[in-house]
From TrEMBL, chain A:
PANTHER family in the record: CYTOCHROME BD2 SUBUNIT II (PTHR43141:SF4)
Family: Belongs to the cytochrome ubiquinol oxidase subunit 2 family.
GO molecular function, one term: electron transfer activity
Leader peptide range in chain numbering: none
Keywords noted in UniProt: Cell membrane, Membrane, Transmembrane, Transmembrane helix
Compartmental location: Cell membrane
Organism from which the protein derives: Nocardioides immobilis
Protein name: Cytochrome d ubiquinol oxidase subunit II
Length: 333, 476
């Protein structure tokens, strides 16, 4: 593996991690939004608070990781994508700001009225943010981001691939969140809530699965390079996504929630990796390849040092945090 | 500080016909988002150490007052760090969205420090989660240690960001051959010469801002007659941090400024409002430059040379030695710089007086004038920090990378419609400010009323409990 590809791989690991971990946090906003009236939805909203509260900031850092590795490792392509895709990025940014702030505000809100206001902002922005990030992915994957100059600031993200990308992002986030929330509710012994969430997670899973595979049709025309990749190099991932997705539905159906979390993560990670492997070796599809987009060699080496250090110093405490949140003591409150 | 004359000058200087339409809104956008975030970044850097000391005291001495304070501060930091995390994300986006010329050309030169900063932020977010949600769930002696990594990551993160800023002021670690950036040495950027001093200045500033702000909250409480152990301790711990920082800062700042005449002569000339080269240079308090004439300044002879040049007669090089097109907005840089120095000096003198009196057995906490001063010290420290950033950033103009890339070359390809972004951002930041103030004040109110856990109002146990529901309704 060349140095450039190693850094690109490290970058893409961040994309997958953000899609799965950050995605699950965003997806919980979908269930929060559709939880019903304050009284009816109180139990679910409290569950959302408890399950994403300790981890959302850590999961959010994956986005920063992706941005930093991108601009450091592949600066010109970063500047190009930022210039062309400014609108969906700004909308996503607005969503990120509103989501994080209103989530924290709601937790400590004094009155139900305040909590409702912050709650609506939190939930709506949680649903919208992944959509815009998905359109960004679609714009890059369909070759609409020129390396030189600024591309069309509307058509670059309002197009079939981007719109499907956006919907898929929202769907996969909600799917992950559904599975995680069901498992969490069941672990806490909130069986009525778990049953309710189980039905909705199944529904979200079916709809998302249909959209993911339906998207392959318009993508064939709209993003031929990606489409070829999906039919070729990335085909095993497409199959894996289908198998893991179906397995998740079956496990949810049988109420095997613990195992369903694993298959759900596998399914979503496969969908996202399918995009990445599908567009390899392009960084900006049809515009610049990974090998040609890379910055200075010394910097790429430095980045790998930083990534190696991250594996050593970040992963253990992250594992500790996740283990704590899954432990009995943390479920009692 | 922002007199109409200064504003007009800024607008005139920045909206010259040759400049891209997106430049001024992009700069204002960056100023707003950086200026807003920097306050929270200070809390992120300095608050964990104060919480740690308080928490440790609570455990070591079995002191319920200290434990209660640490618990409350942790909850406050949950709110502050959340909006700090998202407003920091805004900056990451804006680096690329607003300044693609900088990031596209120099991304691989300046990027490595950001990678390590990201690492520090990762650890901070992880330990924040562990610490905040660990109350009552992790054994106390282990739990208190979970806040310590945040104090360390605050140092690493601040260093890395300041390394990039120092690099922008004094670029190094690359060569330009035939218009192409080459021979990139990212480690030389990470450990560039000015990075440590700039970091030290900001790090100490963060402790001043946070320490004075937190102490000020309890000073207000004491002014309102709440003179209990809770308020005294809540004042004293952050005030000790702020005191050490405040008396250190003048020295750090002075050392940082040394050699500025060679690194960035235009910035120094602007700071000192030196239109011409005078030997020895006076210290010019206040004043503005109008049509090349200094107006309204109070000159103290020789002091300018002494402070800026460490010499009785060596002059501060004047603006007349620097080409017109390389002048920064002089008045804004000068006034912001002096506001920072003035407030810093005042705060340092204030804490020295407090501890001097205390040694003589006089407790100034009994004096209302001191408590009032302590209450405004927090906002003053915020102003000083903001002014310092305005001074150094505006003073670097018209360069984004000093001597190498001009700010107009870095800005993205935008029309004047970029002002809309500034408008929307102003509304969003104002909303976030109001939200934070409302929530933090309501938390304080409920704590005073004797509540401890502050459950969310939609929690099921509350909505089924008649009395609490009534209370929530009444509070609306």
């Amino acid at each position: 593996m060349s140095l450039e590809v190693a850094v690109a791989a490290a970058l893409f690991v961040g994309v997958v991690a953000y899609a799965v971990l950050g995605g699950a946090d965003f997806g919980s906003g979908f269930f929060d939004l559709t939880a019903g009236s304050s009284r009816r939805g109180a139990e679910l909203r409290t569950l959302v608070d408890h399950s994403i509260g300790p981890v959302w900031e850590a999961n959010h850092v994956w986005l920063i990781y992706v941005l930093v590795i991108w601009w450091t490792g592949f600066p010109e392509s970063f500047a190009a994508a930022m210039s062309t895709l400014v609108l969906p990025l700004l909308f996503a940014l607005l969503g990120i700001v509103l989501r994080g702030a209103s989530f924290a505000f709601r937790k400590y809100a004094e009155t139900l009225g305040q909590a409702r206001l912050f709650g609506v902002v939190f939930a709506t922005s949680s649903v919208l943010t992944p959509f815009f990030l998905g359109t960004v992915a679609g714009g890059i994957a369909s070759g609409r981001v020129p390396l030189d100059g600024t591309g069309d600031r509307w058509a670059s993200w309002v197009n079939p691939t981007s719109l499907f990308g956006g919907v898929i992002a929202v769907g996969t986030c909600a799917f992950l969140a559904g599975v995680f929330l069901v498992a969490e509710a069941a672990r806490r012994g909130q069986n009525r809530l778990a049953d309710e969430l189980r039905v909705r997670a199944l529904l979200v899973g079916v709809v998302t699965g249909v959209v993911v595979f339906a998207a392959l049709v318009p993508i064939a025309d709209d993003a031929p390079t990606l489409s070829d990749g999906l039919a070729g190099r990335a085909a095993p991932l497409v199959v894996l996504a289908a198998v893991a997705g179906l397995a998740t539905l079956a496990l949810l159906w049988r109420r095997s929630y613990g195992a369903a979390r694993l298959t759900a993560v596998t399914a979503v990670a496969s969908v996202v990796s399918g995009w990445g492997i599908g567009q390899y070796p392009w960084l900006l599809v049809d515009e610049v390849r990974i090998a040609d987009a890379a910055g200075a060699t010394a910097t790429l080496q430095g980045l790998l040092v930083a990534v190696g250090l991250a594996v050593v110093v970040v992963v253990p405490p992250l594992a500790y945090l996740f283990r704590l949140t899954q432990s009995e003591e943390w479920s009692r409150h | 500080m922002l007199t109409p004359a200064v504003l007009t000058e800024v607008v005139v200087q920045l909206s010259g016909a040759a400049e891209p339409a997106g430049l001024l809104p992009a700069r204002q956008q960056m100023a707003l988002s950086l200026g807003w975030h920097i306050v929270l970044a200070c809390f992120g850097v300095a608050f964990p150490a104060m919480i740690f000391v308080m928490h440790l005291r609570g455990i070591r001495r079995d002191d319920p007052v200290a434990l209660g304070l640490a618990h409350r501060w942790a909850k406050v930091s949950a709110v502050l760090f959340a909006i700090g995390a998202v407003s920091g994300t805004v900056l990451s986006f804006e680096m690329g969205l607003l300044w693609p010329g900088l990031m596209g050309t120099y991304g691989d030169v300046l990027g490595l420090p950001f990678a390590f900063e990201g690492l520090a932020f990762f650890l901070e977010a992880i330990f924040l989660g562990i610490y905040l949600y660990g109350w009552g769930r992790i054994p106390p002696k282990r739990h208190v240690l979970m806040v310590l990594p945040m104090a360390v990551t605050g140092i690493v993160g601040a260093y890395c960001v300041l390394a990039v800023n120092a690099w922008m002021n004094d670029p190094t670690g690359f060569r330009i051959v035939g218009g192409e950036v080459t021979d990139v040495q990212p480690w030389a950027v990470l450990f560039n010469q000015q990075a440590f001093l700039q970091f030290a200045h900001m790090w100490v500033g963060a402790y001043m801002l946070t320490g004075f702000s937190v102490a000020g909250v309890y000073a207000v409480g004491m002014l309102r007659g709440r003179r209990d152990a809770h308020h005294r301790l809540g004042f004293m711990v952050p005030f000790v941090f702020a005191s050490i920082a405040a008396v250190t800062q003048p020295f750090v700042g002075h050392v940082l400024g040394f050699g500025l005449d060679e690194r960035q002569p235009a910035k120094l000339a602007a700071f000192e409002l030196a239109e011409t080269t005078e030997s020895p240079s006076p210290l010019r308090l206040g004043g503005v430059l109008v049509d090349g004439e200094v107006k309204g300044a109070i000159d103290i002879p020789v002091l300018g040379s002494l402070i800026a040049m460490n010499s009785p007669d060596e002059p501060v090089p004047g603006l007349d030695t620097i080409p017109e097109e390389d002048h920064p907005p002089v008045n804004l840089a000068h006034l912001a710089f002096q506001a920072m120095v003035g407030i810093g000096t005042l705060l340092a003198a204030g804490v020295v007086w407090f501890w001097f009196q205390r040694r003589r057995g006089r407790d100034l906490l009994e004096r209302r004038w001191f408590l009032r001063s302590a209450a405004v010290a927090g906002p003053l420290a915020v102003v000083a920090l903001e002014a310092g950033w305005i001074a150094t950033e505006v003073g670097r103009q018209p360069w984004i990378v000093y001597g190498v890339m001009r700010t107009p070359e870095a800005v993205g390809d935008y029309t004047a419609s970029l002002w809309w972004l500034l408008g929307v951002s102003t509304v969003v930041y104002a909303g976030m400010t109001v939200g934070a103030v409302v929530v933090l004040r309501s938390m304080a109110r409920r704590w005073r009323a004797g509540e401890v856990d502050l459950p969310s109002p939609y929690a099921p146990e509350v909505s089924t409990d008649k009395t609490s529901t009534d209370k929530a309704e009444a509070g609306r």
